[in-house]
Amino acid sequence: MLAVLSFTFSALLTSVAGTQFNAEVKQHGSFLKPVEYQHRLRLCNAYPGAEVFRVEKGGQNLTSRLAYKECQQVASKQSLRVGDRLNFVADQLPMSSFTVDALPQYDAMLYIVVQRQDAKSDAVAFQSHLFASSRNAQVAVMDTYVGKAKAALLLVNASGYESSKEGPGYTVMPFGTAFGVADGNYQVILSDGSAESKIHSPMQAKEGESYLVLRTGAGLAGKGSEMDLMVFPSPSWAERSAAKAWSLTIAFLAALFISMM
Ligand SMILES: *[C@@H]1O[C@H](CO)[C@@H](O)[C@H](O)[C@H]1NC(C)=O
Ligand SMILES: *[C@@H]1O[C@H](CO)[C@@H](O)[C@H](O)[C@H]1NC(C)=O
User: Fold this and answer.
1) Is Signal found in the keyword set (predicted)?
2) pLDDT, tens digit, for every residue of 133-144?
């Protein structure tokens, strides 16, 4: 019944004046080349429970196993095109697809999040957010929780609630919004209104990075569906990917060195 769900995010795109021109540059065997924009892609699993997804496009795997509360960045050699269909494959669920309906004429980071559609069925739904590249750290806030509990996401700096004499010492992050933040160390808190919320997650805001903050869960009886919080990239993910980039640089330099000998 829900074998193939198609979702698009064209409504999110705004056209930028002045980019039309670039798109019309044609190649006449000359020096002119169409401008290539860099569209990076991150895929996240916010489907509570044990379901593990794998995302493929045209028979190619874009991700390895994507467990609940994990995101993966797709290798940049897999460039995105309008019309691409990303298939989310899981063991116990019918396959569902996200179709790329439009891409902006600027460098961007696209997040696609798979989640439950509601608490009554196992059907999946998607949310996506497109970040234009920016020098600032940016944050998008989404609600993927399908249960009944009320809660808010708060951003506090690393020293916590009590740090500020002037204000409340925290910022409410409304669901469905995106904003820039100053570089620094923060905590994201999932607050149900009680004085001490135990659910929190660090966020190390770094210039140029795009962060996703999600409320997750389904509030169903059973393991792994409690209301929870997810922040991506986590500080440890950022460290690992920086280490990877560095080892690639070393490999590249070594290759360059060998080729010069
Ligand atoms: C994609 O991943 C699945 C599961 O790991 C594997 O069975 C399949 O062979 C992979 N496909 C390709 C084209 O590598
Ligand atoms: C947290 O915020 C307070 C008030 O704005 C500020 O005085 C303090 O230095 C901040 N702490 C950190 C670690 O950024």
Assistant:
1) yes
2) 999 999 999 999
Write down the pTM of the prediction: 0.80
Residue 215 Cα to ligand 2 middle (Å):
25
Pocket of ligand 2 (CB under 6 A): 157-159, 163-164, 184
206 is a domain residue: yes
> What CA–CA distance (Å, rounded) separates 10 from 12?
5
The CA distance from 2 to 6, in Å, is 10
Q: Is residue 183 part of a domain?
A: yes
- 139 to 87, 180, 243, 255: CA distances (angstroms): 26, 6, 23, 37
In a domain? residue 147: yes
- The answer to whether the beta carbons of residues 50 and 66 sit under 8 Å apart is no
Residue with tokens 């393991």: 223
Report which secondary-structure segment, H or E, holds 36. none
The residue type at 230: M
pLDDT in tens, 157-202: 876 554 445 556 788 999 999 999 999 999 999 998 776 678 999 9
Alpha carbon of residue 250 to chain centroid:
28
- Give the chain's domain count: 1
> Which residue has its alpha carbon closest to ligand 1 atom 13?
60
Spacing of C-alpha 214 from chain mean position: 10
Q: Please tell me the number of the ligand nearest to residue 185's CA.
A: 2
* Ligand 1 cavity residues, CB under 6 Å: 54, 59-61
In angstroms, the Cα distances linking 110 to 3, 13, 41, 259 are: 24, 11, 5, 36
Give the tens place of pLDDT for each residue, 95-130.
Answer: 999 999 999 999 999 999 999 999 999 999 999 999
